[in-house]
C-alpha cells in the first residue's frame, strides 16, 4: 500500500505540473486537469487484463469484485505512465455491462475526466444542457474520499467527472491494490487524444455540445478532401479544453464510392462511440518495437511511403531505416513534426484500435498520413468483405 500511495501522489503532482506548463488560456468554469481514466466494458475482464498487460505492457494496480465485496461485477485497473485503463465485466446476464457488451462488443464506456470540483463541474454542465447519468456522490474509505458524477456523451458513452484531491488510495474507494504480471513497460506515457465516431450529419452537433457544455474550443478540422481515398471519405473536427490536456476528434462518414471505415465502425458497434485512443510515447521506435515483440498487430505501411522522406520531411531526427522497419508514419506542421502508427482493431468486431504517437513539437493529427493510413485500413475492410 505505501508504494501505491506514493506512486499515486507522484503521478498527480507530475500531471499537475505538466498541466500548468501546458496552459493556453484562462481556467474555465469547468476546470478539467486531464484524463482520469478510461473504462472499458468487456465480456471477460480477467482475460482482457491479461491481454493489456502482456501485449501493451500495463501494470495491474487495483481490483474490485466479489472478493472485495462488489457482488455484481469485477473491475481491473491497469496503469502505465499516466495512462489508466479500467476493465469491467458484469456477473449476471441482465447486468448493464453484459447488455452493453452484447450490443457493442468490448468497447469504451467511460472517458473519465479529472476535475478540480466535481460538484461545480456537474452543475455547470447540466445547466448548459448536459444529460445526467448520475449526480455527484461521495465515495470514501480509509484512504480518503473521491467525488464522482457522470454525464452522457455520444451513444452509450459517458464522461465521469472525478475529483480525487482528497484521496490517497490505489484507485477509488472499494478497490484494493493488486499485483500483476510484471510485464515490461512499453513506454506509453499519457493519453494524447480520444477519437469518437458519430453518424453522418451529427459531427457539428457534437462539436457544439462540447463547446457549450464544457467550454471546449475548436482546435482543428478536416473535410472529405483532406481525408479520402479512391473509395471512401470522412470528415473530422477536433475540440480541446483550455489547457489542451483533453483533445477530442469527432469523425463522421462522408459520401464515397464504398463504405467508409467510420460507417463500418458504426455498423459493427451499433452506433456512435470511441473509435480509437492515442497513447503518447517519448520514443516511438522503442515502443513500437516492444509492442510488435509482444504480438500487437499494426496497420501496414508500404515501403514506397519512405521514398525521399528526407526531402519531403527535412529535419527528422529518427533514422529513416528504423522508421521503415517499424512502419512508423511521419508528418510535419509549422511547429515541428510528429510520428504515429495505428494498431489493427483489438476486437473481433472492427471497432476499437489504438494509435501510438510521439510529438516533436507538432500539434497536428497527421494530415499528411491520412491517405496512406486509410488505404491500409481499406485493405483490411476489403479482406473482411466490408468495403
State the domain count. 2
| Rg estimate, integer Å | 20 Å
Strand content: 25-35%
CATH architecture field of the largest domain? Roll
- Determine the CATH superfamily of the largest domain: 2,3-Dihydroxybiphenyl 1,2-Dioxygenase, domain 1
Q: What's the count of strands? A: 17
CATH class annotation of the largest domain: Alpha Beta
Biggest sheet statistics: 9 strands, mixed
Mean pLDDT, to the nearest integer, reads 87
Shape: globular
| Poorly predicted tracts of residues | 1-27
CATH topology of the largest domain: 2,3-Dihydroxybiphenyl 1,2-Dioxygenase, domain 1
Can you write the helix and strand succession as a string? HEHEEEHEHEEEEEHEEEHEHHHEEEH
Question: Span from first to last CA?
Answer: 51 Å
Q: Count of helices?
A: 10
Q: From the helix content, strand content and strand pairing, which structural class follows?
A: alpha+beta
Question: What would you say this structure looks like, in words?
Answer:
This protein has 387 residues and is of the alpha+beta class. It has two domains: 2-177, Roll (2,3-Dihydroxybiphenyl 1,2-Dioxygenase, domain 1); 188-384, 2,3-Dihydroxybiphenyl 1,2-Dioxygenase, domain 1 (Roll). The protein has ten helices and 17 strands. The protein has helices at 2-22, 45-56, 96-104, 118-127, 203-214, 261-269, 284-293, 309-312, 320-326, 370-384; strands at 32-41, 59-64, 73-80, 83-90, 107-115, 132-141, 144-152, 158-163, 176-177, 188-197, 217-222, 233-240, 247-254, 273-281, 329-333, 336-342, 353-360. The strands form two sheets. A nine-stranded mixed sheet has the order 6-7-8-5-1-4-3-2-9. Strand 2 (59-64) and strand 3 form a beta hairpin. The longest helix has 21 residues, at 2-22. The protein is globular, with a radius of gyration of 20 Å. 47% of the residues are buried.
